[in-house]
Amino acid sequence: MNAKQKMRHILDTIADMFPNAHCELNHNNPFELTIAVLLSAQCTDETVNKVTEGLFRKYRSPWDYLAVPLEELENDIRRIGLFRSKASNIQKLCQILIDKYEGEVPDSHEGLTELPGVGRKTANVVMSNAFGVPAIAVDTHVERVSKRLSIAAEDDSVLTVEQKLMKLVPRDEWTLTHHRLIFFGRYHCKAQKPQCPICPLLDICKEGKRRMKPAVKTQTKAKKAK
């Protein structure tokens, strides 16, 4: 099985497991998605959705975020990690949107990454989910799964992981693959307790086989003791 065949096997298997994988950040437009992804750094989507439920009712446009003192916005997102720096970035981002884009979120990767608090991952999420441009955003789940399944090397940077996935995955599947890898990492191949014993990809997962060895040794010892 070569690299592309292996990738195809992984894609088909994860598709069977998570056929309805999707962006779990609640949003109604590109602007809300940009804010939600910015808030999601080092924070769970579940917490972000709880915060944005009220946030998006109060702030509907870039002008709304700039109409309040920074301290008020900080208080509105206090449950989010790094809330002070994120609040500051939101207001700076909103000012740029007003000054350069008439209050609209730019529909280009270059325009998005120029915004405060918006890195390559955030830009990829917005481009793919808000504007329909194929992209693979590499978050902690995508990176972990890619390395455990030896799609990428352990010491690969996030950018290298993204480039390897883009090379192996057909372009029209990039966005859906991003969502499915996230679901696989979030709900199955978890950071602390991956479900290796029931994983359909265990046969090609070095990490899974390594984790399963202690269980096999324990079972062998138990049999010998009998």
From TrEMBL:
The keyword Metal-binding applies. Residues 39-187 form the HhH-GPD domain. One of its GO terms (molecular function) is DNA binding. Its EC number is 4.2.99.18. Gene3D superfamilies: Helix-hairpin-Helix base-excision DNA repair enzymes (C-terminal), Hypothetical protein, domain 2. Its cofactor is [4Fe-4S] cluster. It catalyses: 2'-deoxyribonucleotide-(2'-deoxyribose 5'-phosphate)-2'-deoxyribonucleotide-DNA = a 3'-end 2'-deoxyribonucleotide-(2,3-dehydro-2,3-deoxyribose 5'-phosphate)-DNA + a 5'-end 5'-phospho-2'-deoxyribonucleoside-DNA + H(+). InterPro entries: DNA_glycosylase, Endonuclease-III-like_CS2, Endonuclease3_FeS-loop_motif, HhH-GPD_domain, HhH_base_excis_C, HhH_motif, Nth. One of its GO terms (biological process) is base-excision repair, AP site formation. Binds 1 [4Fe-4S] cluster. Keywords: 4Fe-4S, DNA damage, DNA repair, DNA-binding, Endonuclease, Glycosidase, Hydrolase, Iron, Iron-sulfur, Lyase, Metal-binding, Nuclease. It holds the Pfam family EndIII_4Fe-2S. The keyword Lyase applies. [4Fe-4S] cluster binds at C189, C196, C199, C205. DNA repair enzyme that has both DNA N-glycosylase activity and AP-lyase activity. The DNA N-glycosylase activity releases various damaged pyrimidines from DNA by cleaving the N-glycosidic bond, leaving an AP (apurinic/apyrimidinic) site. The AP-lyase activity cleaves the phosphodiester bond 3' to the AP site by a beta-elimination, leaving a 3'-terminal unsaturated sugar and a product with a terminal 5'-phosphate. Belongs to the Nth/MutY family. This is Endonuclease III. It comes from Paenibacillus oryzae.
